[in-house]
């Protein structure tokens, strides 16, 4: 697989998407270690220093091997408030996105704005279709998907084990 570019920095309306750094570990923990994020993601819980450093290193390896891009969502003031990930799928024309937003930054439209910017970047990278897989119980993430121009597909839901909980994931699609 072709590596993804290094030093990605995408500017949006009130935020920046950028690569995580070693100095971000404390903020990464504060951003990710919360029950709502633990419930709907595969991220370690509790998300402590060991988990953060492992996540950071995995992100670097995934970028250089072309498996995924893992970015921090930061406000224009520099506060880290979330994560954005773009994964390669088995279909080389399709990318899968995922995101988290810290509790302190929810309800401000930031997740949808960041998702729109990352979606546009996915198309710049050559994807023709971008998808999200959203837990049927995650109404907030479904609202973000709608605001960012994604639509629920007719694809059958995927039953998935998310840390011992059987989750039903629906596919949402965005097309260029």
Describe this protein's structure.
By secondary structure, the protein is α+β, with helices and mostly antiparallel strands. It has a domain at 9-130: Gcn5-related N-acetyltransferase (GNAT) (Aminopeptidase, 3-Layer(aba) Sandwich). It is built from five helices and nine strands. The protein has helices at residues 25-32, 35-40, 49-64, 110-124, 139-147, and strands at 9-12, 15-19, 68-75, 80-88, 94-101, 129-135, 151-152, 158-162, 165-175. Strands 1, 2, 3, 4, 5, 6, 7, 8 and 9 form a nine-stranded mixed β-sheet that branches. Strand 3 (68-75) and strand 4 (80-88) form a beta hairpin. Helix 1 (25-32) crosses helix 3 and helix 4 (110-124) packs across helix 5. The mean pLDDT is 93.
What is the overall pLDDT average? Answer: 93
CATH fold assignment of the domain at 9-130: Aminopeptidase
CATH class of the domain at 9-130: Alpha Beta
- Low confidence ranges: none
Largest sheet: 9 strands, mixed
CATH superfamily of the domain at 9-130: Gcn5-related N-acetyltransferase (GNAT)
* Helix-and-strand structural type: alpha+beta
Order of helices and strands: EEHHHEEEHEHEEE
List the helices and strands and how they pair.
Layout: E1 9-12, E2 15-19, H1 25-32, H2 35-40, H3 49-64, E3 68-75, E4 80-88, E5 94-101, H4 110-124, E6 129-135, H5 139-147, E7 151-152, E8 158-162, E9 165-175
Parallel strand pairs: 5-6
Antiparallel strand pairs: 1-2, 2-3, 3-4, 4-5, 6-9, 7-9, 8-9
